[in-house]
Amino acid sequence: QVQLVESGGGLVQAGGSLRLSCVSSSRTFTSGAMGWFRQAPGKEREFVAAIIWRTSSTNYGDSVKGRFTISGGNAKTTVYLQMNSLKPEDTAVYYCAGRRFGRPEYDYWGQGTQVTVSS
Predict the structure, then answer these.
(1) Which residues contact 58 (CB under 8 A, 6 or more apart)?
(2) Which of 34, 53, 68, 86 could pair with 117 in a Cys bridge, judged by C-beta atoms 3.0 to 4.6 Å apart?
(3) Residue 13's pLDDT is what?
(4) Which residues contact 119 (CB under 8 A, 6 or more apart)?
């Protein structure tokens, strides 16, 4: 059973920074992708960022472009999300997700880590 384990969430003041980490228990996604999504109370899940391992390309949701950076470890089993210039509207549970090669959707999810940005 593949597990994705997130860490690094917490409470930070607006304008501050946090770094999230996600570790996969296997190399299931090394030909696919790993990414981050978030969900705030009462809102739909929102795409944040992803890294496509085969091409090392990255993409971001519009609301975080220029503030968040996704990166990965050399083994392609760890992803990081560096979050700068945090805003109260970034408050959410952040989920790590994995997508296997050839699959259209992310099909493995972590338990989530809470990020709270105070104003």
Answers:
(1) 49, 50, 51, 52, 70
(2) 86
(3) 98
(4) 14, 88
CA dist 37 and 56 (Å) reads 19
**What distance in Å separates the CA atoms of residue 49 and residue 46, rounded to the nearest whole number?**
10
Q: What string of H, E and C letters represents the secondary structure of 46-81?
A: EEEEEEECCCCEEEECCCCCCCEEEEECCCCCEEEE
CA distances from 18 to 44, 49, 55, 67, 101 (A): 22, 15, 26, 11, 29
Q: So what's the pLDDT on residue 74?
A: 85
Q: Residues of the chain whose pLDDT is less than 50?
A: none
| Residue whose entry in the numeric block shows the structure tokens 């999504």 | 37
Nearest one of 78, 76, 87 to 38, comparing CA atoms: 87
**Span 59-88, pLDDT tens digits:** 999 999 999 999 998 889 999 999 999 999
Residues 6+ apart with CB under 8 A from 106: 33, 35, 37, 97, 98, 99
